Amino acid sequence: MLEARNLVSMYGKAQALWDVSLTIDEAEIVALIGSNGAGKTTLLNTISGLHHPASGTVEYLGQGIESLDPYVIVEAGISHVPEGGRVFPDMSVRENLEMGAYPKRAWKAREQTLQQVYGIFPRLKEREKQLARTLSGGERQMLAMGRGLMSRPRLCLLDEPSYGLAPIMVTEIFRIIERLRTQEITVLLIEQNVRHTLEIADRVYVMENGRICMEGECDELLQSDFVRQAYLGL
Q1: What is the pLDDT of residue 43?
Q2: Shortest CA distance to 76 belongs to which of 160, 18, 153, 167?
Q3: Which of its termini does the chain have fewer beta carbons within 10 Å around, N or C?
Q4: Closest C-alpha among 82, 103, 99, 80 to residue 90
Q5: Cβ atoms within 10 Å of 37's Cβ, excluding its own
Q6: Topology at the third CATH level for domain 1-77+156-166+186-234
Q7: CA separation for the pair 27, 214 (Å, rounded)
Q8: Judging by beta carbons within 10 Å of its beta carbon (0-12, 13-18, 19+), is residue 21 exposed, middle or buried?
Q9: For residues 145 and 163, what is the distance between their CA atoms, to the nearest angstrom?
Q10: 78 with 48: CB under 8 angstroms?
Q11: Which ranges of the chain have pLDDT less than 70?
Q12: Where are the domains of the chain?
């Protein structure tokens, strides 16, 4: 579904990505783990068009997208849910969700999609008329994810969806991510909660200092002393 090849990304003279390559197959949950500052968010921003690479390519369904604007990439079927559950605080839950349906193909089906999102996040249905600023942190994260689904994506990029949430809410968020697979939505997931991530992902890439340093299936990486010591505390 998506293939990034030899991506180099710069912020001025500072290099953030060094020849990063990865692949994502349809219906997979692919995880990206690494320490803070490793380049994970830059990679997601590069895929979604928020940051254009200095060199390298990103192909989505066989089409090069590395130079496209973000709204074109959303239209093509890639949704990006950034870290922090960012929502429009003075808009209602429903209004926030409708903002995610601005692509033409999504707008026509917004009522149907809205009901599907409410099926995944019943708590949002209960709070449909509330202002987003009145929601809890977990509910805001659900709203951000639901808004991302309103564009009817085939590939969803999730950046730290469990960050700062209570343990019971973390479990709920991971359950929802697993459910996306049954909705035929492919997921690229950045997460610091490595234990939960390895339980639901199909494959994992490990980033350090702007480079991919390891990759493999979850079972393989669980046997790695480096992963166990650095990310699982074992």
Answers
A1: 97
A2: 153
A3: C
A4: 99
A5: 13
A6: Rossmann fold (3.40.50)
A7: 22
A8: middle
A9: 13
A10: yes
A11: 232-234
A12: 1-77+156-166+186-234, 81-152
**Separation CA 225–CA 202 (nearest Å):** 19
**Both tokens assigned to 55:** 């060199």
Q: Which two tokens stand for residue 74?
A: 């959303």
| Lookup: tokens for 172 | 């709920």
List beta partners, residue 216. 204
> Are 139 and 124 within 8 A, CB to CB?
yes
Query: Could you give the CA distance from residue 153 to residue 170 in angstroms, rounded to a whole number?
Result: 23
CA distance linking residue 70 with residue 89, whole number of Å? 22
pLDDT recorded at residue 35: 86
Q: Pairing state of beta strands 186-190 and 155-159?
A: parallel
* pLDDT tens string 33-76: 998 889 999 999 999 999 999 999 999 999 999 999 999 999 99
CB contact at 8 A, 164 and 6 = no
Helix/strand/coil (H/E/C) assignment for every residue in the chain:
CEEEEEEEEEECCEEEEEEEEEEECCCCEEEEEECCCCCHHHHHHHHCCCCCCCEEEEEECCEECCCCCHHHHHHHCEEEECCCCCCCCCCEHHHHHHHCCCCHHHHHCHHHHHHHHHHHCHHHHHCCCCEHHHCCHHHHHHHHHHHHHCCCCCEEEEECCCCCCCHHHHHHHHHHHHHHHHCCCEEEEECCCHHHHHHHCCEEEEEECCEEEEEEEHHHHHCCHHHHHHHCCC
